[in-house]
Amino acid sequence: MPGAQALVAIPQSSGAPKAYTSSITDYSTNLAEGNISYPITGFTSTYQNNELTIYATLTLPSGTTSLVHLWQDGPVSGSTPQSHAMGNSNTQSKETLNLVSGASQGGGSSGNSVRRRRNTHGVLNALSWGLLLPLGAIIARYMKVFQFADPAWFYLHVTCQTSAYIVGVAGWGTGLKLASDSDGVEYDTHRTLGIIIFFFGTLQVFALLLRPNKDHKIRIYWNIYHYLIGYSTILISIINIFKGFEALEVSVQDRYNGWKHAYIGIIASLGVIALILEASTWVIVLRRRRSERKAIHGVNGTDGVNGYGSRTQQV
């Protein structure tokens, strides 16, 4: 765009990307290297995971409260950038930044649309895999200790886990859409863990449908499978949510730190609750076993052996 002050970065076959400034005067300019209108410091760039990131500090004229931000990518011939495509995602890749409030307003729907999908993806997955799933596990582990909660704990557990799966599938779908709309931007670890989580979650759904009766001889193996896959899914989900926060921070710097800190607080609270319930559960179980042993002894006799009390024979 004529009049733009460009920060250009070009990946190299080895080493750091080539970074320079360019003042665009007309459409025939092939981003030739040159000075821009603003003093610039700390100008560097990195290329990781197929994502090119530019870092720079611009000194703007005093009193500047907003600016128009544009971004583009395109082919390179040798070391010379070529004209970028002219699709909607290119022509609408701009926004107005309010330097006072930090708010932005897109010049087109593309940037805002991607941002909304990114936010939706994060919220859906944090709510499902990161909150409902561990909450359902806590309900199953600790509520069933209380006899009055049977079978309510089971239905609450199934409701939490089923809801987590449904919402999680929606979050997974938005992630696939984001990946298809972000050519050249890949988060391999985040994507791989997301596939594993979806696969494990689907296995748990089938496990519910194939659950044997309590007295069935293979029930113990089903329990081992259910616990192993369930707790593995929860652990991987929490790890992947933080991987998602890392990806967001690469894109929008510190805007999502508040979300990350809030999620850390939620997970820490669930962890503390689980520890308290774990200790309380063991106390209840041990007391119940002690009471049962006393009841058995009381029925069978004073010594608890074959129903007969001990006697002292006099000769």
Automatic annotation (TrEMBL):
Parts of the chain that traverse the membrane:
122-140, 152-172, 192-210, 222-242, 262-285
PANTHER family attached to this UniProt entry: CYTOCHROME B561 AND DOMON DOMAIN-CONTAINING PROTEIN
| InterPro entries in alphabetical order | AIR12_DOMON, Cyt_b561/ferric_Rdtase_TM, UCP037471
Q: Which cofactors does the annotated protein need, by name?
A: heme b
Which organism does this sequence originate in?
A: Lupinus luteus
Q: Cite the binding residues for heme b.
A: 121, 157, 190, 226
The task this protein performs is described as:
May act as a catecholamine-responsive trans-membrane electron transporter.
Question: Superkingdom of the source?
Answer: Eukaryota
Key word Heme present in the record?
yes
Predominant localisation class: membrane
Gene Ontology CC terms, in alphabetical order: membrane
What is the protein's name according to its record?
Cytochrome b561 domain-containing protein
Q: Which UniProt keywords apply?
A: Electron transport, Heme, Iron, Membrane, Metal-binding, Signal, Transmembrane, Transmembrane helix, Transport
Name the Pfam families on file: Cytochrom_B561 (PF03188), DUF568 (PF04526)
Instruction: Give all residue intervals belonging to the Cytochrome b561 domain.
Output: 80-286
Molecular function GO labels: metal ion binding
